[in-house]
Specification:
Blueprint: E1 2-3, E2 18-22, E3 34-37, E4 40-43, E5 51-52, E6 71-80, E7 83-91
Antiparallel strand pairs: 1-5, 2-6, 3-4, 6-7
Length: about 100
């Protein structure tokens, strides 16, 4: 399973940064995520639609109905204009 890059936040807007989420699982803490735009705060609830599950697409997802993301990463073309690099990652710990 991996994040579906087509679902990256800010991709459609063609902004220089993109935001991607980490799937819950294992021993990572889960977190609430919000997007802030000026005075507007919008919750980003966990959704399977953000991920490509490949061969696991038929998995029983009942246990994930109250799931939250385990983190996020921000991408930016830091080294090459045609490749996004991770510039910040928060995943599986308390920050």
């Amino acid at each position: 399973m991996s994040f579906d890059e087509r679902k990256s936040v800010w991709r459609r807007e063609r902004l220089p940064f993109q935001l991607q989420f980490f799937h819950p699982g294992g021993r990572q803490d889960q977190m609430d995520l919000n997007l802030v735009d000026g005075d507007d705060v919008t919750a980003v609830p966990f959704s399977r639609d953000f991920f490509d599950y490949g061969a696991n697409s038929g998995f029983n997802w009942t246990d994930f109905r109250d799931a939250k993301f385990s983190g996020f990463r921000v991408l930016y073309p830091l080294n090459r204009p045609d490749k996004l690099d991770e510039v910040i990652v928060f995943h599986g710990a308390t920050y």
